[in-house]
Amino acid sequence: MMKIEFLDTTDHMVYGHEGWLVPGTNHVHEGDAVEVFTRWGHNMEGHGLARKEGLTVGVVMPDGNTEDLLVDEYDADNYVIRYTPIQKGLYHFIGKYVGLYVIDQEGKFQKGTLKDYPDAKSATSFTQYSHLTMMVGHNITPVLIPDMLKLPLRIEADEYTKWQPGEKIGFQLLTIDSFLANTELDLAFQGEENKPVVQRKLITNASGRFLVKAEEAGQYLLIARNLVPVGKAGFYNDTKYTYTYYFNVKNRKVKN
C-alpha cells in the first residue's frame, strides 16, 4: 500500500482534540459490506489525524458478542474500518484512544508518564471513546444496552432508531456507576451539502438527562468530557475521559 502523508495532530488531544466515528452508508442490510471512518479534530471539524498507535476499534453485535476490528487503511483525513454485519439488529461501533502526557517543570506538555518524568507537576491519561450505532435490516426491536458498553463516560439514547427532522431526542450522560447532573457538554451539527459546522452548549438536568431537538437533517456529534482523580501509581495522577457519539438525521423518503 502506498504511503500517504497526513498532518499528525495527535498531541492536540491535550488541548481538546478528539476522535469520532462516521458511517460510510446509512442503509444497511445483513451481508452488506460497510465502511466506518475514524476522524480526528475538534467538535466535528477535522484537523489532521492521530497516530494509529493507541487506537483500537471494536463492534458489539446484536447478540452481545464483540469483535476487534482491523485499523489499517487510511487517507489524509480518516482511518478506514471495513466490516460485514451478518445479523439483523443494532450494532455499536466503539473506538478507543489513549494518550499519556505530563506537564513538566517548565509547564509544558510532554508525551510520557511519571516514569519518564518523575519530577513532573502532573501526569494525565487522556482516554477517549468514540461511539457510533448502526441499524442493520428493518423493523428493529429496541434492545437493552449490553454491559460491555457501560464505559467510564458515555451517552445513552432513550431509544436508538432512525431519527427524523423535528424530533426531540432524549439522552442521558453516565459514568460507570452513576450519572452526571448539571454538566455541560457540546453539540456539533453540520447540515446536508457540507454546510459549515454549527456548535452549541448543552447541559444535563438533575438526573443527567438532556434533549436534542433535531430541527434539520444532517450530522450530529455529542462531545462529553470528565476529569476524574483516578490514576496509576508511578505513571499518572488522573484520567481525563472524552466521549463522542455520532448520529445522523434523515428526511424520510415519501413513496409515490
From TrEMBL:
Family annotation (InterPro entries): DUF4198, Ig-like_fold
Source superkingdom: Bacteria
UniProt-listed Pfam families: DUF4198 (PF10670)
Protein known as: DUF4198 domain-containing protein
